[in-house]
Amino acid sequence: MRSEMRSDWILDVLADLRSFAMSNDLPVLAEQLDDTAIIALAEIAALEERSSDRVHGNETETRTDIGGVGASGHA
User: pTM to 2 decimals?
Assistant: First the structure.
């Protein structure tokens, strides 16, 4: 996919930063970068899914606001 190719670089950068952190005795930073990579993967996948939905004519809003007011209007 086109967006996948554009997004792969950020995962490579995060992997390089993690490798640097591990090589320089920064284990907490390395762990945080692992978490950041997981978030990046999830967001990239969601972005690709939204792009695919638009291509196939399904433009319904799938975004959720975590911790905010839900669709029913109740907190």
Answer: 0.62
